Amino acid sequence: MSEARSRSEAPSGLVQAALARWQWILVGVLLVAACYAPFQLVPFRVFQLTMVLVYAIALLGLNLLVGHGGQISLGHGAFFAVGAYGAATMMFHWELPYPVTLPLAAVLAFVIGLALGVPATRLRGLYLALVTLAIAIFLVPLLKRFESVTGGSMGLTLAKPRPPAWTGLAEDQWLYFLALVVALAAFVVTSSLLRSRVGRALHSVRDNETAAEVMGVRLAFYKRLAFAWSAMFAGAAGCVYTWVIGFVSPDSFTVNLSITMLAGIVVGGLGSMWGPLLGGLFVMFVPSLSQDINKAAPGVIFGLLIIGVMYVAPTGLAGLAGRAAHSFDKTLRKG
Fold first, then answer.
1. How far apart are alpha carbons 8 and 248 in whole angstroms?
2. What digits encode the pLDDT tens for the residues 90-104?
3. Which structural domains are found in the chain, ordered by start?
4. Can you give the pLDDT at residue 8?
5. Which H helix or E strand runs over 243?
6. Which long-range contacts (CB under 8 A, 24 or more apart) does 27-32 make?
7. Are 287 and 260 in contact (CB under 8 A)?
8. For the stretch 135-144, what's the b/e string if a residue is b when 16 or more beta carbons lie within 10 angstroms of its beta carbon?
């Protein structure tokens, strides 16, 4: 019986090893393509890819909170706005160099996320979703209120980072590579975090809070920490957004942004490292595609596209590869 069991488990191990090897190959190919793309595409397409990277950074944080932490947030766009306005204020009023604004905006969002994560220690499910939704709702009028700092309804216009002369890059290419470097750093940090004790604690809280507490996991601490880390990545993304757009206004950070981000990470694939990147593509291109299909009712098209994707891939787009690997594994077992 043990020999039969070892034979049945062998294909699974081979599949896992092959998948890991092909995943690294895919990462290498994507990195080469990402470095090659801005030299072959027109500036508008380069801008679109840059925004995909910006949204992917933000969705990394949301995936950490929802996919790995098992909590829910409808206010992620608010932390995105904190990073954007934090960077804009530092550049516009304090005239700080733009590289300095990235860590400061990330730390600012982290601290605010840590403070606003208090409800996460007491609430869950729909109640927590309503609290985070309230944060996103009152943010816009709050930004318009402090006109001397935020520019009010008119927003703030900023100079975009210019490429150093030695690079020989155009402005759109330079901004793209800035976003690419930040995105790569964010993916590396997230991957390391999930492999650490913090990641294991988050997974235990997500899977079974009672069992996690019995094992000594501090539920309140790790729930607040998940909110803080999630906010930090959103703040970093908001900072890069400010660099790329060169303009911030309250109307860019409405509740729709938070809802679209949540839809993006669900469609991309919760709990998957590929989910934020696929979700970034979704957030960037699907709303504009909906507008092109039907200018009268883009929201209807947007909703139908989400339903269609979730019907085909209920675990998200990243889950399609997992399902294919599972089917392949079953085929090998039968053979």
1. 57
2. 999 999 999 999 999
3. 2-334 (1.10.3470)
4. 43
5. helix 219-245
6. none
7. yes
8. bbbebbeebb
Strand, helix or coil for residue 247: strand
Residue 82 CA: distances (Å) to CA of 136, 264, 326: 11, 20, 41
Mean pLDDT of the chain: 85
Q: With 0-12 CB in 10 A as exposed, 13-18 as middle and 19+ as buried, what is 327? A: exposed
β-strand pairing of 247-248 with 156-157 = antiparallel
Q: Which of 78, 119, 93, 107 is nearest to 256 (CA)?
A: 78
Residue 312: name the closest of 327, 270, 304 by CA. 304
Q: Using an 8 Å Cβ cutoff, are 194 and 18 in contact?
A: no
Half-sphere exposure of 335 (CA within 13 A, CB side): 9
- Tokens representing 167? 């690079």
Give whole-number Cα distances, 275 to 71, 254, 271, 272, 281, in Å.
17, 23, 7, 5, 10
In angstroms, the Cα distances linking 92 to 78, 95, 98, 108 are 20, 6, 10, 17
Q: Phi, psi at residue 248, to the nearest 5°?
A: -135, 140
191-214 pLDDT, tens per residue?
A: 999 888 888 888 898 888 888 888
Type and span of the H or E element at 157: strand 156-157
Q: Sign of dihedral through CA atoms 214, 216, 221, 226?
A: negative
Report CA torsion sign: 304, 309, 314, 316.
negative
C-alpha to C-alpha distance for 64 and 71, rounded to whole angstroms: 9
From CA 180, how far away is CA 53, in angstroms rounded? 6
CA distance 180 to 186: 10
Closest CA to 68 of 297, 281, 270, 282: 270
Residues 6+ apart with CB under 8 A from 257: 77, 80, 136
